[in-house]
């Protein structure tokens, strides 16, 4: 009864965990890595053809994107997912295969290849994706199912994305039974359309995400309708477009929900007929899946709109573009408009064309509405890059860059703590994953301060679930391109985090008596002198 950590360990993308129960080999997620990554991922301990099941927490590509590659390598088992996730995977994995094929064709055409140099190949083909999709089996929320001998499971709505779930697993070997819960991505509370994350009663072990484990969402959360309306008004007044890089599944539908409110309440009367283009075939298909799953996944507010005959994510002036020709027509239209296009991190898809045509225009606005992984083009733009390369050409960043910070599909630090606090007793061990290096380490330290046994494992770490003991604890193995082969030290990361805490303490000490401040300073100076080399 073993747990091994494979992906999204001290990183945000590429989620993958391995379970061995009896003679069964099970994966929890099989995601694609996106953006910059610091560490090498450990390989699967068995070959793909030996994997019996993959349990998917939700359909985002960083949790599902390598499933077709698993099929290509020999996997022929069953993929287990909620009903909505199964439907979303159908379109998202085909879209991923299409994007990779198109990118490979572009690279092979762009780059000159000499004799004997192999052409660039996509990670997997459309055929691989289609064959994998046939292996997906849908299951309902809230019911306990038998996966195989010694393994039962249940999906619980976690409120991150349509169909997203935490996974409870009851594992039995001989007379030993243990329960492990994988949180998946924990949703933010009070999001439009989706229900709040549901709690789980108990578990021996918990594997939980920590994407925003080091921060709180700014201020009291409120729908950003007024802020969005002001951004649109200012941009239209300059004669520009508002380009929104958006995840096709989930975030696009939320933006449509807010745009409908702006039009319904006439918040921009001087531009009340402004057009909105959703230029993403995937987003169009995903919107249809949202509507098909409204009764099982929508929150009460969205259901109330439906009962009143109001579709919460459609409105006059909304134009859905499917074909390449329709997409090109948007580029040729210079009237002010809103363009929503994927991918959300600007690293693939049609958004690259819209950025190429709008990023250099000072009258335009690029509005970010989702997480931007370190190293992604979106993150570089958001961090103030003066130019970026698109299709091999440098494009100046002269458009206004904005972001809606109140939008997040992930729980913040307090939301994560609330979810973990929902267990009736503290789990025996909490494993912190799916967070940037310092974030995952810091959140594990915070849980330790609150009385939990918690750690942030690196890829390759192995744990015996039956005995509750580690089989192997690995260190992060850096990618050569990012750290020149140096081994990352947990102790050094902890020191950096402690430095941040010290800075906070210093800032809070302004009201202390001078003699206490002097004593504090002398003690710090002694410590620095002791460790100065």
User: Helix count, per DSSP?
Assistant: 17
Low-confidence stretches: 481-492
CA-based gyration radius: 24 Å
Helix content: 25-40%
Can you identify the CATH superfamily of the largest domain?
Ribonuclease Z/Hydroxyacylglutathione hydrolase-like
In CATH terms, what is the fold-level topology of the largest domain? Metallo-beta-lactamase, Chain A
Assigned CATH class of the largest domain:
Alpha Beta
Sheet/helix structural class: alpha/beta
- Strands in their spatial order, largest beta sheet: 6-5-4-3-2-1-22-23
Mean pLDDT, rounded to whole units?
Answer: 89
β-strand number: 23
- Share in β-strands: 15-25%
First and last CA, distance:
46 Å
| Biggest beta-sheet profile | 8 strands, mixed
User: Shape, please?
Assistant: globular
Just name the CATH architecture of the largest domain: 4-Layer Sandwich
Number of domains: 3
Structure overview:
This protein folds into 3 domains: 2-216 and 409-483, 4-Layer Sandwich (Metallo-beta-lactamase, Chain A), CATH 3.60.15; 225-403, Rossmann fold; 490-531. The strands form 4 sheets. Strands 6-5-4-3-2-1-22-23 form an 8-stranded mixed sheet. It has a 7-stranded mixed sheet with strand order 7-8-9-10-11-20-21, with helices on one face. Residues 481-492 have low confidence and may be disordered. The radius of gyration is 24 Å and the shape is globular. The chain has helices at residues 61-64, 67-72, 83-110, 126-133, 225-237, 251-264, 281-292, 294-297, 300-307, 324-331, 351-358, 377-382, 413-421, 437-449, 480-483, 490-507, 514-531, and strands at residues 2-7, 16-21, 24-28, 53-55, 78-82, 136-139, 145-148, 151-157, 165-173, 176-182, 205-209, 242-245, 276-279, 318-321, 338-341, 365-368, 387-390, 393-396, 400-403, 429-433, 454-455, 462-464, 469-472. With 533 residues, the chain is of the alpha/beta class. Helix content is 34%, strand content 20%.
